[in-house]
Amino acid sequence: MGEWPPYLSESLENKGAVAQLITDIFAEEGIAVNLNFFPWGRAYAETANGAQDLMGVWMHKPEREADFYYSDPVLTETFVFFHLKTFSFQWESLSDLEELTIGGDIGYSYGSAFDAAFDAGKLIIHRVATPKQNFEKLIRGRIQVYPQELNVGYAALSQYFSEKDVQKITHHPTAFLKNKSYVLFPKKLKSSPSLLATFNARLNQFKETGRYAEYFDQD
């Protein structure tokens, strides 16, 4: 697992809503889960090599299908642009960001359209390791906007910053990405297809009974 509070975090009660969901799904099948947290790149490499049985949560990218089977959707995420309240920010298309200095997280994908604009050199993105570092840069005026998942962004602000600093920041109400995330099972392990089928069946049962929603209503 990677750090993705409030959904996944070694420091949270029950390791976060998604971690608890995954743990409970397998517990219903009599399977105990041992959660290991790593930097995202290491989590990917270790799981792809079969050192971990699964990892969560990741958005879909076609190139990842070479290494992993995807579960059914586990989480729907809403990505927005955070900015200082003193910065008058409006946008309708990604071209409106071309003259701005944008923060970003190392290793993150922000969706195909955003990634393509960056790869084409149309967007200026300065990447650092953590949301905390990006918000520090935003508060200091070193970046103008910071793309981040809505709940993840406010969780980081609440955890690391004073109320005075939190009050300096807002987000644009228009989401630039609505994204589904998945649990990934490594193709290198022969047990993965069976484990995936078990996970999906129980996940869908949780959704049908309303139990799934309870994990996120708590946030």
Description:
- By secondary structure, the protein is α+β, with helices and mostly antiparallel strands.
- Helix content is 36%, strand content 21%.
- The protein contains eight helices and eight strands.
- The strands form two sheets. Strands 1, 2, 3, 6, 7 and 8 form a six-stranded antiparallel β-sheet that branches. A two-stranded parallel sheet has the order 4-5.
- α3 (112-119) links the parallel β4 and β5.
- The longest helix has 18 residues, at 192-209.
- The radius of gyration is 18 Å and the shape is globular.
- The chain starts with 16 loop residues before the first helix and ends with a helix.
- The model has no long low-confidence stretch (mean pLDDT 94).
Helix content: 25-40%
Number of helices: 8
What is the molecular shape?
Answer: globular
The gyration radius over C-alpha positions equals 18 Å
Q: Helices and strands, in N-to-C order?
A: HHEEEEHEHEHHEEHH
End-to-end Cα distance: 19 Å
Q: How would you sum up the major sheet? A: 6 strands, antiparallel
Residue ranges: pLDDT <50 for 5 or more in a row?
none
Could you report the average pLDDT, rounded to the nearest whole number? 94
Structural class: alpha+beta
Number of strands: 8
Strand content: 15-25%
Short structural description:
By secondary structure, the protein is an alpha+beta fold. It contains eight helices and eight strands. It has helices at 17-27, 40-48, 112-119, 131-140, 150-160, 163-166, 192-209, 211-217, and strands spanning 55-59, 68-70, 75-84, 101-105, 124-128, 146-149, 169-171, 177-186.
